[in-house]
Design brief:
There is one protein chain. With 254 residues, the chain is mainly alpha-helical. It is built from 13 helices and no strands. The longest helix is centred in the C-terminal third of the chain and has 21 residues, at 218-238. The chain starts with a helix and ends with a helix.
């Protein structure tokens, strides 16, 4: 019956039919998601007279790659006056060597230096998700919603992941849909974030299965299936090179 509702939704939107006999992929995303790359962070940094970072590109690249030993990371902290972006990447370096308390410490320092920068909240939320500290993830999400201006899509993404991994699928779907709606309103100023779209597609897939198991009315399941179908089309339009969104779409169309 799950596929029947997806089929109806896709037909309503002018696609084909689903492949009968297969099961949708509904695995939760892995709990460990690394920091954004240096290019991501620079791209999302607000315009400011403050230098983006004070570390060399070689040092930044090694931090991102997890190719720096603990004593080297400690030396960077001791010998440099670091910006909020440096601190974020230092935290990523500590995380790569399993020094989670130090990673948390420096992400909190990064947030103190720039409360408007959503990437810092998102990276700390990512750490909390990895450690299965879901209550703290949600507390940080609520704070970020009040204070973050830049990189909010990253915050929505990690709260969606937290809800999914904590088996609160309905909240996951609501969170990512809210994030996508906000991003669409700001499309003139920011680029869409593929991870958020993909996590939302997966959330809606799982939610349909839950609704079916709960014997909810057909209209409710069809509404969710229609949201999923619309999101797949939008995702393919925004991210034509996304293999994972294309894979989901290919499952449902002939």
């Amino acid at each position: 019956m799950y596929k029947r509702f997806l089929l109806i939704a896709i037909l309503l939107l002018g696609s084909g039919c689903v492949n009968v006999g297969e099961e949708p992929t509904t695995e939760n995303e892995e709990s460990k998601i690394p920091h954004r790359t240096i290019l991501d962070i620079v791209e999302h940094s607000p315009g400011s007279e403050t230098p983006v970072n004070k570390l060399t590109m070689e040092q930044l690249a090694r931090l991102i790659a997890g190719d720096m030993e603990l004593d080297e990371i400690n030396a960077l902290v001791e010998n440099n006056e670091l910006t909020h972006l440096d601190l974020d990447l230092i935290a990523g370096g500590y995380r790569s060597v399993q020094e989670f308390e130090l990673a948390e410490k420096y992400l909190k320092k990064a947030i103190e230096l720039d409360e408007s920068f959503g990437d810092h909240y998102g990276n700390l939320m990512s750490l909390y998700v990895e450690l299965e500290r879901f209550d703290e993830t949600e507390e940080l999400y609520n704070t970020a919603m009040e204070k973050a201006i830049f990189g909010r899509e990253f915050v929505y993404f990690h709260q969606t992941r937290a809800f999914l991994l904590n088996e609160d699928v309905s909240s996951a779907a609501n969170t990512c849909l809210q994030g996508i709606d906000e991003m669409e309103q700001l499309r003139e100023f920011i680029e869409p974030y593929e991870n958020l779209y993909f996590s939302c597609i997966k959330s809606l897939e799982v939610l349909i299965g839950e609704q079916q198991n709960q014997n909810l009315p057909d209209e409710t399941i069809l509404e969710t299936a229609t949201q999923l179908s619309e999101l797949m089309y939008e995702g393919l339009d925004l991210f034509p090179d996304s293999e994972r969104i294309q894979e989901v779409y290919n499952y449902y169309e002939e």
